[in-house]
Specification:
Pfam families: TPR_19. InterPro entries: TPR-like_helical_dom_sf (IPR011990), TPR_rpt (IPR019734). This is Flp pilus assembly protein TadD. It comes from Palleronia aestuarii. By secondary structure, this protein is mainly α. Among the domains are: 93 residues, Tetratricopeptide repeat domain (Serine Threonine Protein Phosphatase 5, Tetratricopeptide repeat, Alpha Horseshoe); 56 residues, no CATH class. The protein has 14 helices and no strands. The chain starts with a helix and ends with a helix. 35% of the residues are buried.
Length: 284
């Protein structure tokens, strides 16, 4: 009659042991999850707010300790691009796109690193390998740049337009598109695009400067009506002066340089030097 009692006791101990092991396993899994979350959060922080060189160091160490983690290699490649080391980034992106967990977005980032390192042909190969069903602002921005480089203007225009429609902040890509038009000699088209870029971001100085170049190329030497600081206004007058001189309108260029020097809140060395050289040349 004692056997059932002994068996029950043993079964109870076994179940208790199983429960303890199960709880321990659950705790370990929870800790692993917390570690993974902490690691992901730290990686995100390093990329978003960390110093680029510190981010590179972090991801180098983390990816070396976890060679199977494609997300850490992806983080390293991204950090290298931000640290202005695109050549090193391309070798890491090459590993990422060759891994089982690679995505079309990875190929886009790889193409970006290739462009930054000057390998336009390889970048085009990567972009061509991405399915047409994958659509993103970054993809079409790069497609436009590659088409520009190959002087495929219709393709470039189409890609720029698509990219601009895929972002809520299109100022930068509109500025790039405008510069493409400027380089082709389509000055009115360029002027419209720079103005549109500024309607989305009135503080984008490169678009202001490019807008002045487009107007100057059409012999329109009045500054556009855009919000500027006093320093920016002086810089734009300097740009307009150089555009006028390039067009052969030397007297206008002189007048604009003089206005630039007078407008700048401090000594405007570049404009003053150009004005002195021009005055000396005219005197001779």
């Amino acid at each position: 009659m004692r056997h059932p009692i002994i068996m029950s006791a043993c079964l109870g101990l076994a179940l208790a042991g199983c429960a303890e092991r199960s709880e321990r396993a659950e705790v370990e899994r929870a800790l692993q999850s917390i570690d993974a979350i902490d690691s992901a959060n730290l990686a995100e922080i390093m990329l978003d707010a960390g110093d680029p060189d510190e981010a590179v160091a972090y991801f180098q160490t983390a990816s070396a300790e976890n060679p199977d983690r494609v997300d850490l290699r992806r983080g390293l490649a991204t950090a290298l691009v931000r640290a202005k080391q695109p050549a090193r980034a391309t070798s890491v992106w090459r590993q990422v796109v060759a891994s089982p967990g690679a995505t079309s977005a990875d190929r886009v980032e790889y193409a970006d690193a290739l462009i930054r390192s000057g390998d336009w042909s390889a970048a085009k190969t990567q972009l061509d390998s991405i399915p047409p069903t994958f659509e993103s602002y970054e993809r079409y921005r790069l497609e436009a740049m590659v088409a520009d480089g190959n002087q495929q203007w219709d393709k470039a225009d189409s890609f720029y337009q698509t990219a601009a429609g895929l972002t809520t902040t299109p100022a930068s890509v509109l500025n790039n598109w405008g510069y493409s038009k400027l380089s082709r000699g389509d000055y009115p088209g360029a002027e419209r695009l720079f103005a549109e870029a500024l309607s989305h971001d009135e503080g984008l100085f490169t678009a202001k400067n490019n807008l002045v170049l487009a107007r100057g190329a059409q012999r329109n030497y009045t500054l556009p009506v855009v919000r500027t600081t006093q320093t920016e206004r002086a810089q734009l007058l300097h740009t307009m002066a150089l555009a006028a001189i390039k067009q052969g309108d030397v007297a206008t260029g002189q007048s604009l340089l003089r206005e630039a020097v007078e407008t700048h809140p401090q000594h405007f060395e570049a404009a003053a030097r150009a004005l002195d050289a021009l005055d000396a040349n005219v005197a001779n």
